[in-house]
Amino acid sequence: TFVLWQQWTGLHALEDHFASEHVDAFLEAIPDLIDGEVTSARFDVVAEEQLISQEELTDYPLVQLADNTILH
User: In the chain, where are the structural domains located?
Assistant: First the structure.
């Protein structure tokens, strides 16, 4: 398992990062470094006051990231 965790000041900063040459080089090299699929997920960080309730959570579908990994 290889995990990259990055936190950005905003979507614009993330888009600039993905448009950079070093990300292109990394994405080109990664298939030779791993055995299997590359899975990517993006999360928005919000203030605690913006969190949704457990009841509201059921309105959103679960996302299965891998065989034993489900994002709620």
Answer: 11-71
